[in-house]
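=== RUN LOG ===
request id: a7f3
mode: sequence -> structure
chains: 1
length: 385
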Amino acid sequence: MRRLWLIFAQAVTVSVAVLFVVNTLRPEWLRDTAPASVVAILEAPAGAERAPAAGSYAAAAQRSMPAVVHVFTSKKGRSQRHPLLDDPLFRHFFGERLPNAPEQRESGLGSGVIVSPEGYVLTNNHVIETADAIEIALNDGRQFPARLVGRDPETDLAVLHIDADAGLPAITFSAGDSLTVGDVVLAIGNPFGVGQTVTMGIVSALGRKQLGINTFENYIQTDAAINPGNSGGALVDSTGHLVGINTAIYSRSGGSLGIGFAIPVSIARNVLEQIVATGEVTRGWVGVEIQELTAELAESFGYREIEGALIAGVLRGSPADRAGIRPGDVLVGLDDREVRDPKSMLDMVAALPPGQRAVFHIRRGAQKLELAVEVGRRPTPPANR
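=== RESULT ===
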């Protein structure tokens, strides 16, 4: 009996030892190998078309994204000299023959929109104004050097051209300024250089002016996220048609705060057509300095109404000077249109072709005058490049 007990004890000890070794070195041998229960999963057949989700703007994005490009710019520059190199005492001991700062290239990025299969690209002037080399990268990975066709600093627009062997995807313009406040819009561009991005918002306001961004302002305001790098990109409607060129944001941090501005497609189209045709934008000019007619100024000049544009100065020898317009006059009408403020007067005059005669309706004290002015050509702003 004792012998049997010893054999049993030894067998248990050996079994426990074997289990310990196996559990330490090959634990998977002890796991339950019974087949797991099968979960039934329903999966769409391969190649099946997915119906767009309700409220999706995927079709609009897919229609317009191929025409939105990345704009890479570079220019020559010099790195900053160490302050000691300009110190007179340092130069006294080490001499005047000190090395100049090495040249380096500064790079920038923005966005653009292919507006013609022939290779014309619209972007912002501030994206390319200081560049001496421009490169365009398409959404399909192709890259091309770009040539500057012309630019218009007063609307912050520029036109580039690229030569491509294969066809280029051009965006479709919307029919005029068809937007209304509350319409859904998509902003497409290359924010912060992360790659092409689509953001959605609504039209918050139309006709935003007097923001101090450019000379000629008539912006679309939107809460679609626009960030650095989006400049020059497309603002499209819910069908994917171009309604504006993204150009500026209101921000205290550098990022989007839900207040972005885009140049309407009507202005962009006019600038595009003029630059492609002549290489520049031509506007009317009469040579006056204008300012808002406030209640205090109206009272000082003896006017009861404050509508119109006050002529604060007249350039000697200008069309306005030759026509007899004087400082202190108030322009209240141009041909058959009413002038309500300085901004409307500037837009009306700029729209007139040089050489055309226009009738200016003037208030001068108690007098009401009609003066014929031969419109001149607006001087080209000085280039910054």
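=== NOTES ===
Residues 284-377 form a domain with the Pdz3 Domain fold (CATH 2.30.42.10).
The longest helix spans residues 2-25.
=== END ===
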